[in-house]
Design brief:
The chain has two helices and no strands. It is an all-alpha fold and about 50 residues long. The longest helix has 9 residues. The radius of gyration is 13 Å and the shape is elongated. The model has no long low-confidence stretch (mean pLDDT about 80).
């Protein structure tokens, strides 16, 4: 049970991407940072970019 709870709270929030933003546009996660400084590296690891 503890592993299930740990997995639930450690999981990244699910974000649906309609369009991948350009490097210098605002990030799709809503952090108000530029995409290249926020989620670009994570998306590259996931193979989205």
């Amino acid at each position: 049970m503890f592993n299930t709870i740990k997995k639930f709270f450690s999981a990244e929030p699910e974000v649906t991407i309609e369009r991948i933003p350009g490097r210098n546009e605002a990030c799709h996660c809503g952090s108000e940072k530029k995409y290249k400084a926020c989620c670009l590296p994570k998306d590259q690891r996931k193979g989205l970019r």
